[in-house]
């Protein structure tokens, strides 16, 4: 069958076939292909929003803004809760589509959808009062928080629904209206969620537009978008910031990471091995805050590796639609090639030791065996860069001070962790690790009431928690003399 013929047989997916613009479901004239990473073949078409569609979405969001802002926290919370309930209730029905476009195991797709609803409710429950900074003989000073206006949210492909819905909840709860763009690799489930909102939220409050990278660039340059909330790679984040500068948009960037974990000589090794296996390989290692390099004290190296290799070697890898898999394929061809290149480069290094995995299975789909490699030094790209895949390097250290310095010798600073039975020691090490979040005896927890974001090139600002959600608001000071 020729390629043209194959494309002719592709179709829009019922229920995920429309952008949501000003309360209307619009499929438009153009479309692009969505690939199933378990086969490497396109399986569906997605509507492709034009620049005019974006203009219409922004205009609708602008028009809906005054009434939505005036609704107040309680009124907005009620509607966000209703949308969250619809998303959670649709978890079973939408999970196969999420697995189809993303590759993740069906159970994890179900979980992502259900957790999205849960997180939306947590975020829309935060208490965000205006504050009195001072009321004294020097006068009364109040801090008031206003919505910004129209927010543009740009999402990545690794947790397409959850990461988008975090932005939806934060932007809408604080009184903004929103234009949301999913990743072109994983747009369909987000469009289906947009459909769930179509008859629930006032028209224009939430707009969902799918398209390519150019659509993201149009958003960052758009004169009538007031803030960009972006989650994605460092390279794109820099472009977003540069483009947003022209209109001085507010910008929050949640970017990549190269999280180090330090296993000290007094760690609970069973807990450390379980935590590293979970954090390093869940979602096929495609998590911004996944453990991406392990530093273990020389004296416990062998004991840790025995436990870690047993856990990672037992992971079940296969198509996400087959029940019971722990890991599916890498999400897309570009990422697949990137991870394969890191792996091949690491394997070619003198001294490299594959402790488990190391193979790219023959056959269709973007599968890579879960892999642990020892014997590498700091300069190897697999250690220095963000691999974003199921290939984990393990390095050893003789002194904790040196391990901290090596962990910090990175342009990234998203997360880090330390494993130790001695709480004071662990806290002391944690405070010296230059990362936005440092976990002790765990890694990678995502909690809606806790601010999250990166130091250095891993981010710009924070999301979640009261401190993070305030980035969707503008602070106003009201000041008057003492009565
Ligand atoms: P990406 O930067 O390639 O794409 C992210 C989004 O940006 C997509 O929607 C894409 O279409 C859009 N985009 C591309 N070019 C653009 C441009 N010039 N202007 C505006 N938008 C543009 O990232 P990805 O590959 O989808 O996601 C993986 C990356 O995201 C990893 O680096 C990962 O660590 C990071 N990430 C970070 C967090 C966090 O919270 N810090 C969470 C998840 C993922």
Structure, explained:
With 483 residues, the protein is α/β, with parallel strands linked by helices. The protein has two domains: 3-255 and 459-477, Aldehyde Dehydrogenase, Chain A, domain 1 (3-Layer(aba) Sandwich); 259-448, Aldehyde Dehydrogenase, Chain A, domain 2 (3-Layer(aba) Sandwich), CATH 3.40.309.10. The chain contains 16 helices and 20 strands. The strands form five sheets. A seven-stranded mixed β-sheet has the order 14-15-16-13-12-17-18, with helices on both faces. A six-stranded mixed β-sheet has the order 9-8-7-10-11-19, with helices on both faces. It has a three-stranded antiparallel β-sheet with strand order 5-6-20, with no helix packed on it. α3 (72-89) packs antiparallel against α5 (106-123) and α5 packs parallel to α6. Bound molecules: nicotinamide-adenine-dinucleotide. Nicotinamide-adenine-dinucleotide binds at residues 154-158, 163, 181, 183-184, 213, 216-217, 220, 231-233, 236, 239-240, 254-257, 288, 386, 388, 414, 454, 459. Belongs to the aldehyde dehydrogenase family. It comes from Sphingomonas canadensis.
